[in-house]
Design brief:
Layout lengths: L1 E9 L2 E8 L7 E10 L2 H7 L9 E2 L3 E9 L11 E4 L2 E2 L5 H4 L10 E2 L11 E5 L3 E3 L6 H4 L2 H14 L6 E5 L3 H12 L4 E5 L3 H9 L3 E3 L6 H8 L5 E6 L4 H10 E9 L13 H7 L2 E4 L7 H7 L9 E6 L3 H10 L4 E5 L7
Parallel strand pairs: 11-12, 11-14, 12-13, 14-15, 15-16, 17-18
Antiparallel strand pairs: 1-2, 1-4, 3-5, 3-9, 3-18, 5-6, 6-10, 7-8
Helix pairs in contact: 4-5, 4-10
Length: 342
């Protein structure tokens, strides 16, 4: 049986193609994709700035309904709504063997090197398929991988009760990181975001919000913290200017988490003496190790449905990417099999 898919051909080219559903292996699950959301990584792939292996169907944030299962699949059944943890690890390198699979030297991702979710169907091994509890929509279920990344980042940042937390960037992950910080017991959570719409949403969700285009961010944070600086500063915009700003906002003994993907051609300088004398902790956060299950558990508590602000049919995927790139909303979902935007 043939199905429609959005395939990255290399050289910035994304085209709709017809593909043939492969024969299922014993532990394979055939998924009818209901919703796939656009991620910044998808843009990096199309720009040639992320190591995908074309031709490949992109899209690594997706959910759908089980259509068929291999002969030895036991955890899901046809009709189940499922979400996908889109990584395969070698299991043999040092990092796989010490419980750090996300650092696997031979990691492969669905939607990056293996066919992903911008398609009517996708075949995924059972071990990376997770059943979604009732009451969660496919669009929210598609966000599970992204939420898992945020959970890992929050665990790395180790937010404590009463901490002052600043999130630089009020896009989807910025809002989710702020929500998670509040759930961890943070005292004050502030989002720095230039986009008026996103900043208004942050305020509606109960966060402090700063407009860096009109406000002095450093002075505002110092005033908020009685001159001490924030306990945790999270860079969630993926920009070199906000990465540099973290050092101006963090207080002594504080933690800086680089969560956003700053392009590798940019760099910044910091004196080791600053890290030493202020006892700072600087860290990164990569993908979602062992957090996909936890992500499913918190989906309902995060109130994510309002953050899916665009819905498109697969045939309109290029328009979906333009909408996502405009920055006028949060997450954009593509719904394979739907004839028109809704």
């Amino acid at each position: 049986m043939k199905y429609l898919a959005a395939q990255y051909q290399g050289h910035h080219e994304l085209v709709l193609v017809e593909k043939e559903i492969p024969k299922l292996k014993d532990h394979d699950v055939l998924i009818r994709v209901a919703s796939a959301t656009i991620c910044g990584t998808d843009f990096h792939i199309l720009e040639g700035k992320f190591p995908a292996e074309p031709p490949v169907v992109i899209g690594h944030e997706f959910a759908g309904y089980v259509e068929q299962v291999g002969s030895r699949v036991t955890s899901v059944n046809p009709g189940d709504l499922v979400t996908i943890e889109p990584h395969e690890f070698c299991g043999l390198c040092k990092f796989c063997r010490i419980g750090k699979e996300h650092l696997c030297l031979k990691r492969k991702g669905y939607g990056v090197r293996l066919d992903g979710g911008f398609a009517e169907f996708c075949v995924i091994p059972e071990k990376t398929v997770y059943k979604v509890p009732s009451g969660i929509s496919p669009s929210v279920a598609a966000l599970t991988e992204n939420i898992g990344c945020c959970l890992h980042g929050m665990e790395r940042a180790n937010v404590q009760f009463g901490d002052d937390v600043v999130v630089l960037g009020g896009g989807f992950v910025g809002v989710v990181l702020a929500e998670l910080a509040r759930m961890k017991g943070a005292g004050r959570v502030c989002i720095v975001e230039p986009n008026d719409y996103r900043r208004e949403v942050a305020v509606q969700r109960g966060f402090l919000a700063i407009n860096p285009m009109s406000d002095d961010v450093e002075r505002t944070i110092k005033e908020m913290t009685q001159g001490l600086g924030a306990d945790v500063v999270i860079e969630a915009a993926g920009r070199i200017d906000t990465a540099k700003l973290t050092l101006q906002l963090v207080g002594n003994g504080g933690t800086i988490l680089f969560f956003g993907v700053v392009p590798p051609e940019f760099s910044m300088e910091i004196s080791p003496n600053v890290i030493f004398s202020r006892e700072l902790t600087l860290m990164g956060s990569l993908i979602n190790p062992y957090s996909h299950h936890k992500s499913i558990e918190v989906l309902e508590r995060l109130h994510l449905e309002p953050l899916v602000t665009g819905h498109f049919a697969l045939k309109d995927i290029k328009e979906a990417f333009r909408t996502a790139q405009s920055g006028n909303g949060f997450k954009v979902a593509v719904h394979p099999g739907v004839d028109r935007s809704h």
